Amino acid sequence: MSWIYLVLAGLLEIVWAYFMKQSAGFTRLTPSLITVVTLLASFGLLALAMRTLPLGTAYTIWTGIGAIGAFLVGILVYNEPANGARVLAALLVMAGIILMKLSST
Questions:
Q1: Is pTM, for the whole model, over 0.70?
Q2: Coil, helix or strand for 26?
Q3: Helix, strand or coil for residue 58?
Q4: DSSP code of 25?
Q5: Is residue 93 a contact partner of residue 64, using CB atoms and an 8 Å limit?
Q6: Residues 74, 62 contacting (CB under 8 angstroms)
Q7: Nearest-5° angle of CA 84, CA 60, CA 50?
Q8: Which tens digit of pLDDT belongs to each residue from 13-61?
């Protein structure tokens, strides 16, 4: 169950990052509220996952899911550049996430 909590926490990290951008520096109420609620839910699920998963594994995978997800949202929603160096960096982060998962006990 901890892995499910961790993946959900990572997905919520993508949601709060997106809505933080939408909040325009917390000047828009609805996106700001969504940011805070999803941030707290993400932290809560991460805490639940950390009950049984190692700190380094849980935190690395949580931030990795958020980073890759935010990267993809940036490209798909905000038309941010998807040049070779950025894609390579994202692939390296993904490789790190996979290796961390495979090497966890």
A1: yes
A2: coil
A3: helix
A4: T
A5: yes
A6: no
A7: 155
A8: 999 999 999 999 999 999 999 999 999 999 999 999 999 999 989 999 9
